[in-house]
Design a protein that fits this description.
The chain is α+β, with helices and mostly antiparallel strands. Helices cover about 40% and strands about 15% of the residues. The protein contains 12 helices and 8 strands. The chain is elongated and about 75 Å long. It starts with a strand and ends with a helix.
Length: about 260
């Protein structure tokens, strides 16, 4: 949910996006740079004002340029400032220096305010920097998904989050996404296999990127567990001389593990 508050100088002046702390990593940061359509033209004008006079003067009439920029179709998965820079460069027919726009001179209400909620709608913190909130609550996010419980009680979904000690693909098809209860709230999670050394486990991650990264490592371990005899053969077939050559970087066991 979004809320708008007009009170210049206050922490929540402008647009605030409220999000459960467990899903902070799922918020599309680049999309949030575009705020809401009703503020896009004003935001573009504020950034153009920060341009050095020698560039701004050549944008005349500035109002027409800004209106055209706001009305043009944009890909809001691309950073706002990159798109604005490209539009200005096309108008001027020249490249701008990297520091042409001065973000620090733009009023704070032209940046999304993010409010993180815990259980029972308790406000845990807020910031104009999504990354700062993610860093601040990284442990809480990780803990929430480590303890996530499936809401859908289908056979496949029920397995995720409770199956561990696996040495083979002894469960059903793994869904791409699923609804789980994390941090006391219903949120979307992304199932993956997780490498736990001698076994693998099914866990839910908070982003698809993290799930893919963990899943690849989990699959790699699962292959090694299923092909146990082949792995032993590879380990026994390695010349001892390799271990001696590897000594400056680690032990023979570490070398074998990397090769396998």
């Amino acid at each position: 949910p979004l809320a708008y508050h007009f009170e210049p100088g206050t922490d929540d002046d402008g647009v605030t996006l409220t999000v459960p702390v467990a899903t902070l990593n799922q918020v599309p940061a680049v999309r949030c740079e575009w705020l809401v359509p009703g503020l896009l033209e004003q935001k573009a004008r504020q950034f153009v004002k920060t341009l050095p006079q020698k560039y701004r003067h050549r944008l005349q009439p500035v109002d027409e340029f800004i209106a055209a920029f706001a009305e043009a179709p944009h890909d809001d998965d691309e950073p706002f400032l990159r798109v604005l820079t490209r539009a200005v460069e096309a108008q001027l027919m020249m490249k701008l220096p990297l520091d042409a726009f001065r973000s620090e001179m733009v009023p704070t209400h032209f940046f999304m305010n993010f409010r993180a909620l815990g259980e029972h709608d308790r406000i845990l913190g807020q910031s104009r920097s999504l990354q700062e909130l993610r860093n601040r609550f990284a442990k809480e996010i990780e803990q929430s998904f480590a303890e996530a419980e499936p809401i859908d009680v289908t056979e496949d979904a029920a397995a995720v989050g409770v199956l561990q000690g696996l040495t083979s693909w002894s469960f059903g098809e793994l869904p791409d996404i699923m609804e789980v209860k994390a941090g006391g709230r219903s949120v979307v999670g992304f199932p993956s296999l997780v490498d736990e050394g001698d076994t693998v486990a099914l866990r839910v991650q908070d982003t698809p990127e993290k799930a893919q990264e963990m899943h690849r490592k989990g699959l790699r371990r699962l292959f090694a567990l299923v092909l146990r005899e082949q792995v032993k053969f590879v380990e026994k077939s390695l010349p001892r001389d390799l271990g001696l050559l590897f000594m400056p970087w680690g032990t023979e066991a570490e070398m074998k593990a990397q090769i396998v």
